[in-house]
Structure prediction request, 141 residues.
Amino acid sequence: MTKFIFTLSILMACCAGRPQTIQFSSKNSIIDTSFKITAIACDSIYPNKNYKITFVAFDPVDKNNDHPNTLFTLSRLFRGAYTPILSDSISTTMRIVKFDDFNNDHVPDILIQNGSDVRSNHTYYLYLVDTVNNRLKKSRV
Prediction:
C-alpha cells in the first residue's frame, strides 16, 4: 500500500496539474474505464409501462463466461427519470434478448443469452416480469 501511495505522489508531482490518463495495474487487477452501453426501449413489448433495458458492458472483450462482465438493468420512467426495477450483474458477450411468456401469465418475460459452449449448448438468464406490481424476478433455471 505504501508503494502505491509513493508511486501516486510521484505521478502527481510529474503531471504538474495537467490532465493525464493513467492506467493502474497490479498483479491481480486492471482498472479500465471503457464501457459499452446498450439500451432497449420496451414500449412495443410492454405498452404504457415506459420500461427500458440497459446493458453496461464493463469488460466487453472478456470471452470467459465464468464471471460477470455486464450490468443488466430494467428501468421504468417515473416522474421524468428512469428508476431501476432490478439490476443484476451477468455474464454475456452477445446481449441477445428474447421476450416470451415463460410462466403462462400472458406477460412477456425477458430471456438473455449468456453464451454457448463448443457443442452450441446455449445458456440463458430468465427474468419473470410482473407488470401489475412493476417487479422483475430472476428465475433459477
